[in-house]
Amino acid sequence: AVDVEMWLAGKIADKFARVEGTAFWSGNGVGQPRGLATYTTAATGDDSRAWGQFEHVVTGANGDFHTTKADPLQDVIGAMRDQYLAGASFAMRREVRTKIRKLKDATSYRYLWEPSVKVVAPDVFNGYAVFTNNDMDSALTTGKQLFLFGNLGVGYLIRDVGGPVFAREDHLYWATQQVGFLAYQFSDAKVIDNTAIKRLQLA
Asked: By the 8 A CB rule, do 88 and 130 touch?
């Protein structure tokens, strides 16, 4: 015996999560959230950028990290205002995560990545949690911004109007002895503090 209604609700919830995740990164703001990737960036500090622009830090190498490897990552952290660091984290695609996992310090060749010892806890890099977002770019080419560092709880507001609505509609399909289900959810998002989010650019 299979509870088809419960199974379908779980599948729809998973679909909602994936669609929202993509929209929160690349959505154009028309009938969907405006994604983080759609905001412009500039290599200038918080006091001199236009509102709505993120600051990006360059790696010092075209299409790659600098020869000092982890130094640009420290620069990204250093560009963040102190009051936002407590809730900050990294986000990157799986392929970029693999590259960064291999970074070592220059003296003891110790890996800078700290794998989590718990399934429910995120990995840590330079003391900050790392989350995977496979909607982000992974191409190691000049000008690409392959990962984000920021306090998204401060910088990016997500508003859900209630939870997912899942309704069974028997009467519409009674003639064919079928059952229909309707599912929907209202959600929106946009940047509210561009100083709380930084990007790293391969250049």
From this structure: no
